Amino acid sequence: MMRENKFIEDFCTINRDSILEQGQPWSRFILLPDDHPLRDRTKQALLSHPNILKITEKLTQHVIDPESPKQTPLNFRVYGSFYWLLRFLADIGITAEDFGITSFIEQAKLSQLEDGQFMIRYHQNKQRAIAFVCITAHLTYCLSRLGFKTSRTVTAAANYLATTQRFDGGDTRVEVSSPHI
After folding, report:
1. Contact assessment for residue 75 and residue 126, using Cβ atoms and an 8 Å cutoff
2. What is the pLDDT of residues 35-65, one digit of tens each?
3. CA dihedral for 16, 21, 27, 32, sign (positive or negative)
4. CA distance 37 to 33
5. Closest of 33, 6, 28 to residue 18, by C-alpha
6. Cα–Cα distance for residue pair 144/170, rounded to 1 Å
7. pLDDT tens, position by position, 69-82
8. What is the pTM of this model?
9. Distance between CA 53 and CA 44 in Å, rounded?
């Protein structure tokens, strides 16, 4: 993981001028410092870009029944689900309010279990509701980046995630046959 981050950092450093000159608005926005004079204009270009508008439209059309969140958990299929769209938007670093998806986020919070995990529908028939630690971690990241860092939802999810970790960083639910593995 560390090596991958170094590669990305080197790529951005080497190609910074090219990205700022020719890149998509989201790439430019990420590279511009907060106090850069072009940041606001780049943010507006990003928010009005047709691809971003398609993403936010898809998210705002996603329906979660607020009356029965336990029966209608979010759908995190590998392809075609809102999750990957949300992750892309979170990586950009603009709030849900700016993207116009706050009501969707409020609906998404309804899929959180009392212990802090987020449940999902899985398999083609979507009849099974299950929870994975990784989905909770990723959604916690997304919510934090989209402006909900201090929400009770993120706090509960972070507290849950902390209970799943060993002191050595491993998952408490995984059996280890040898301490040397």
Report:
1. yes
2. 999 999 999 999 999 999 988 988 887 554 4
3. positive
4. 9
5. 28
6. 23
7. 334 455 555 455 67
8. 0.75
9. 12
Q: How far apart are CA 104 and CA 11, in angstroms?
A: 34
- Give Cβ neighbours of residue 29 (< 8 Å, ≥ 6 apart): 39, 42, 43, 46, 92, 93, 94
Per residue, the 3-state secondary structure of the chain, as one string, reads CHHHHHHHHHHHHHHHHHHHHHCCHHHHHHHCCCCCCCHHHHHHHHHCCHHHHHHHHHHHHCCCCCCCCCCCCEECCCCCCHHHHHHHHHHHCCCHHHHCCHHHHHHHHHHECCCCCEEEEECCCCCEEEECHHHHHHHHHHHHHHHHCCCHHHHHHHHHHHHCECCCCCECCCCCCCCCC
Overall size of the chain counted in residues: 181
Amino acid at position 141, single letter? Y
pLDDT in tens, 119-135: 876 555 555 667 778 88
Q: Please answer whether residues 34 and 98 qualify as being in contact, where contact means their C-beta atoms are separated by less than 8 angstroms.
A: no
